[in-house]
Amino acid sequence: MIEVTDVTRIYQMGLVEVRALQGVNCTIESGEFVGIMGPSGSGKSTLLHILGLLDEPTAGSVTIDGIPVGTLNEEEKSDFRLNRLGYVFQDYALVPELSVQENVVLPAMARGIPPNEYLKESEKILHEVGLGHRIHHRQYELSGGEQQRVAIARALINRPRILFADEPCANLDSTTSRTILNLFRELNEKFGQTIIMVTHEDWHEEYMCRVLYMKDGLIEDEKACKMRKRDDGSDNV
Amino acid sequence: MTGHHLSVAFFLAIRSIQRGNRFTFLLTVAIMGLVFVNLVFLPSIISGVVVNFNTQSIDYNYGNLVIEPRENNLYITGVAEVKQKISQISEVTGTSPRFSAGATYNYHGTQISGQIVGLNPRFEQEVTLLHTRLKEGEFLAEGDTDSILLGAQLAGNIDERKDKTDSLGGVTAGDSVLVTFNNGVKRTLKVKGILETGSFGVDRNGFVTLKEINQVYGISDTATSVLVKLSQNGEEERYKKVLMEYGIAEKIRTFQEKGQGFVNDAIRSFEIINAISTMVSLVIAIVVIFIVIFINTINKRRQIGILKAIGINKKIIIYSYIIQVLIIATCGILLGLALSSGLVTYLTINPLVFPGGAVYPVVEAGPVIRSVISLALVSLISGFIPSWKTANEPILDAIRGQ
């Protein structure tokens, strides 16, 4: 569970003070697929970065699974990210010198998992994301959607408690976007994977449990999405 | 740093080199290789000059040790006794008394002043290799009188453009030269041979037998120096003391002490040039490697940010860059060694010609080890600083490339 209490984030841009977050409060339960939406500059990415320990709040606190993450030092945060969090970025952020499988196993290698285990696990995950036939390919041989699925597989290799996705479909066409979103929903439904995703596409809502709407650095509204669309077009409560 | 951190760093480094920009890799390796050559080459030439100088000094000029008259004395008298004392030392393989004096040489109206050296040909062959360096003619025999050996530079060439200094204008074996000794005695001596050692101090002299000198000066058992040859080079200082212990009361000097002068000055100058060249090479290496690694890390700033974001420990990232530069340095050093070997082989076949003779490069372990350590250190610094700087940036700044 994530608890966000009075989180503010103020950037200094030259002489100008930018108040990206102005006292955000929210709670995200384990197993939720939560969307963060809002116009540009509303603070949605800033909130995601703070929840994902990529940035620090100017004030306020974030507690993940009962751990006040603001008290962790840099090394501990790095371990926390490695062991408990997974990330999917807008532009995939793969290491170009590594093959698909090598990209996926990298976080597991960094954890010190034995090679036979992480290789087996990576093959399993790559099959799950539909890239079982692309294991030894390099980034430049993959389409945008395939690259994003590699990024998702990499984010999942350490079986994270929370998966963060920062506009993962921004560079993809709508068909590929649906593939990615279906994958997220499946992970959420089948494995109870907690997912927090920033997006600005309204139609993405149909894949989420709940959406937080942000404006001017605050959560202005939130909506529970009761009906989630299935691949076959049917609705699922 | 745990073992698996190091293995991940190694994995990233290897992949980066294997699949990264080949041109950057090859360029950096080539630069390091050339810097290595620069670090090793000049010292090898200086060592070559020193070895050449030492070899010539021992083989043609002085032997290992030179016994000279005591202070205020012009001559060593009782040479036989001195020889007998020295011959008791088992490591002494030969002694050769010499008598040097000023002389004027006259040939077909050309007059040159120089030194004339009296020696015993049999004893001399136990100490020096003069007898092996005859350009033409024969070496002196023990009983020879009215015969002289001329150094090649003193004898000179008919075509004076080939001469390095003033000469007698092309004396050959069988010619006669008029020699005026510094006591005024004049003798017409038949040139028995022409010596060419490459050593300026030898090739400007004339050589006669001690028997000739004894007749000219009316002396016997007298010398201006006694050359001593040891069974092994490099033990001169120790045997200088041993000779004293054996009752040699005359002044004893090593060949290095005798040779102090312009060659040592030249070597010192070379060493200053070498030190400057080494410094400049290392600074260039630091700057170039630093720039290449810096640009490489700056280009991968976003990637470093991403790696940190997904939880890869920054030590892994820094170590992966350090391992990369160490691999590059190893390749550069190996390339440098190969290039240096090629250059040394070429210069061994086609030696550089210095005033003292042909100089062969001598690669000593010291400069090679120093160069390897310097380049490894330079690489380490050049790899560490930019990667450390980038890996310590805030994650979002690195990802956004701000």
Provide the fold topology.
The complex is a heterodimer of chains A (237) and B (402).
Chain A: E1 2-13, E2 16-28, E3 33-37, H1 44-51, E4 59-64, E5 67-68, H2 74-84, E6 85-88, H3 100-111, H4 115-128, H5 144-156, E7 162-166, H6 174-191, E8 194-198, E9 210-215, E10 218-224, E11 228-229, E12 235-236
Parallel strand pairs in A: 3-8, 3-9, 6-7, 7-8
Antiparallel strand pairs in A: 1-2, 1-4, 4-5, 9-10, 11-12
Helix pairs in contact in A: 3-4, 3-5, 5-6
Chain B: H1 3-19, H2 22-62, E1 65-68, E2 76-77, H3 79-86, E3 92-107, E4 110-119, H4 121-127, E5 134-137, E6 147-151, H5 152-155, E7 176-181, E8 186-195, H6 200-203, E9 206-209, H7 210-217, E10 222-223, E11 225-230, H8 236-245, E12 251-254, H9 255-259, H10 262-299, H11 301-309, H12 314-349, E13 352-354, E14 357-359, H13 365-391, H14 395-400
Parallel strand pairs in B: 4-9, 6-8
Antiparallel strand pairs in B: 1-11, 1-12, 2-10, 3-4, 3-7, 3-11, 5-8, 6-9, 7-8, 13-14
